[in-house]
Amino acid sequence: MPSLKGKVQTVLGLIEPSQLGCTMTHEHLTMDFSCCYYPPTSGQEALSSQPIEMKNLFWLKQNPYSNRENLLLCQETDAVKEELLHYKAAGGGTIVENTTTGIKRDMKTLKQLSKETGIHIIAGAGFYVDATHPAETRAMSVEQLAEVIVNEVTNGADGTSIKCGVIGEIGCSWPLTESENKVLQATAHAQSQLGCPVIIHPGRHSDSPFQIIRIMQEAGADISKTVMSHMDRTIFDEKKLLEFAKLGCYLEYDLFGTEFIFYHMSPDIDMPSDNERILRVRMLIDEGYEDKIVVAHDIHTKNRLKKYGGHGYSHILENIVPKMLVRGISQNKIDKLLVENPKQWLTFK
């Protein structure tokens, strides 16, 4: 697509890559995550339907997917707008909004938020995990799925003329389902036509990112323009992580601010702390991968907004960057993570 080459596509139109500034590569500004509701443990059932209050904030932090209201980020447009202004004041320039088909993407709200805050917002095309695929999606061929994705980037998504600027987050489970496999292949086909960035949500198993890259490579994807999300909850073994890093995609540590004891979606996983994330990022930099790391918070529930006592979209800029400096990551390296690497990734080829 010659008209997109060398540009970045936001919900307000094309911009120069140099305009992006500090970029969070994986966030949600409006979505419905009810597909991932987990009933509370025995004796706590009443908490699932209670409003968010100060007295249950700690419980919510530990059980974010067990309160139905907490999963409806789409109800918080005013609070998100306030958060984006705070993010801008802290030095933020761009948000990559990873809400895809299946979790209530809202292109009109994204455009409104961008207009009202001055933050560049880049919307995601494509499909989330199999559990959100309707029968219509499951019935599509790889070619038909690719056509849908290309159309969302070139013409507009969800019946609007507002265009997506990235494919993803493309949802994958473990084990990968047939429908997700087709979507991955369609993503590769669409990317090869568009020269656009791609971002993947891997399954919760350390082999999942390897499987995904293999499928995409075989389907013709450009791995150098692909981000593998959620590395902080996916590959813990250092040797295996470095083996994966050699494949050439971007490694995204995008759960900054998420610290809880019991991870309902995969109880075997010990969710790392922010300090542990920083040390892992420093290790990857020391191993020579500073050009292939991006960071974010993946805010997708209400309790992570400042309105509800959460850390908000500016947590990395306000709290993580100072700690990175203390831990020996230079400002130059931090600028790569926040500015240069997202710029390289988001620019159409």
Strand order, sheet with most strands = 3-4-5-6-7-8-9-10
In CATH's first tier, which class applies? Alpha Beta
The helix/strand class is alpha/beta
Residue windows where pLDDT falls under 50 for at least 5 positions: none
Provide the CATH architecture.
Alpha-Beta Barrel
Order of helices and strands: EEEHHEHEHHEHEHEHEHEHH
Q: Helicity, in percent?
A: 25-40%
- Tell me the number of structural domains: 1
- N→C terminal distance: 9 Å
Largest sheet: 8 strands, parallel
Principal-axes shape call: globular
Mean pLDDT: 97
Please provide the count of β strands: 10
CATH topology: TIM Barrel
Cofactor: a divalent metal cation
Catalytic activity: N-acetyltaurine + H2O = taurine + acetate; N-acetyl-L-leucine + H2O = L-leucine + acetate; N-acetyl-L-valine + H2O = L-valine + acetate; N-acetyl-L-methionine + H2O = L-methionine + acetate
Protein name: N-acetyltaurine hydrolase
Keywords: Hydrolase, Metal-binding
3D architecture notes:
The protein has 349 residues and is α/β, with parallel strands linked by helices. Helix content is 36%, strand content 13%. It contains 11 helices and 10 strands. It has helices at 57-62, 77-89, 107-117, 135-139, 142-154, 178-194, 208-218, 238-245, 274-286, 315-326, 331-346; strands spanning 8-10, 13-15, 22-27, 92-97, 120-125, 166-171, 198-201, 226-228, 250-253, 293-295. Helix 3 links the parallel strand 4 (92-97) and strand 5. The mean pLDDT is 97.
